[in-house]
Design brief:
Shape: elongated
Helix content: 25-40%
Largest sheet: 3 strands, antiparallel
Number of strands: 3
Structural class: alpha+beta
Strand content: 5-15%
Bound molecules: zinc ion
Number of domains: 2
Order of helices and strands: EEEHHHHH
């Protein structure tokens, strides 16, 4: 279950909200003043994380929610980590494939 951080644009207070599914995140009201004028805060945790630290923390044995893959930087992470664990080094070629997956290009190629 994702927990998002919000800031109310009206009263400037910050609060976090737990969602059963990500669609609910479109209907958030400020818990203090009930204003609907809120913005979602990017968690500093995910913004400042480098790919190396993402890979280090990534646990391939745990299931990922759909929210995880909404962050395009997380696409390909599983494959990279898994290959690394297996001792397979595909070098720049893997980065290229992952990059194409992240930008959506890989799907265009498949549809040709
Ligand atoms: Zn408010």
């Amino acid at each position: 279950m994702p927990i998002y951080e919000f800031q109310c644009k009206k009263c400037k207070k910050e609060f976090s909200q737990l969602f059963l599914n990500w669609k609910e995140a479109d209907h958030v009201t400020c818990v203090f003043c009930k204003s609907r004028d809120v913005k979602r805060l990017m968690s500093s945790f995910s913004v400042h994380q480098t790919e190396e630290s993402r890979l280090a923390e990534f646990d391939t044995s745990k299931p990922r929610g759909e929210d995880f893959y909404k962050d395009s930087r997380n696409i390909g992470l599983w494959a990279k980590k898994r290959l690394r664990e297996l001792g397979v080094d595909l070098g720049p070629k893997l980065d290229e494939i992952v990059e194409r997956g992240r930008t959506g290009k890989i799907l265009e190629d498949y549809n040709k």
